Give the backbone structure.
Amino acid sequence: MRDIVRGCGVALVTPFINGEVDYNTLGKLVDMHVEQSGSIIVTGTTGEASTLTDDEYHEVVKYVIDSVNKRIPVIAGAGSNCTASAIKKAQFCEETGADGLLIVTPYYNKTTQRGLVNHFRLIAESTSLPIIVYSVPGRTGMNIEPQTVLELSKIDNIVGIKEASGNISQVAEIIRICPNDFFVYSGNDDMVVPLMSLGGHGVISVVANILPAETKKMADDYASGNVVEARKAQLAMNGLINALFIETNPIPVKEAMGIMNLCSAEVREPLYPMSANNREKLITEMQIYGISC
């Protein structure tokens, strides 16, 4: 099955306590999402993969895969600005039992569009797992242009893109020129319904950390033709979604999870605890949505 996201994949946080990965809480979060999300994306941006040690990265990926135990797909973030390092991660994730990979564009050193095709091709050749490429230029400084996505879609095990450019015109062009069996997922929680209205296939979501069932229902409603309900859900969530990005992700979503007693709000440096002023704004939007604070 090429659609490994299944409508709504949660971009799972990595919970910390006193500077260490909190595996007890991680297990509880996994169980919640097995029941309420379509898939789990581990060690991505929201999972603070960039501040995990190599050992922690391996342990977190393995722990989530083992805990899920094939009940829903687990997609492992395995990107790097070093192609050789990304290949090693991809091979580890496949050996450990991941169902797919999320591979972000190279960051900092970046590359050309031709270099992007080569980077992703080499990773794809190193594994049999389905790959979702991840375009988030606001984080990486590297956009995947529509014609480049088209070239990537010709590689057998590159099955989709998490598109987080925020450029709906670019998303429309990607969907227009790419094959129908190439899956385009929103990387922006506030654009799920607009993207699906153009032919997109769902979302890899931050807000699903606190609203898993609601986010999945929104995507499923649109896919099943219940457009009015999906639109209402999108608009109802957008104030909260905006608050979840008032500071660098995942600072606000972890703060919200702390308020909801889902996990500690702790983040790793250089991320920093949320300001008191922004925390009040977040609480206000949570209450407007109907979350008890």
Remarks:
- The chain has a mean pLDDT of 97.
- The beta strands are 8-11, 16-17, 20-21, 39-42, 74-77, 100-104, 131-135, 158-163, 183-186, 203-205.
- Residues 227-243 form the longest helix (17 residues).
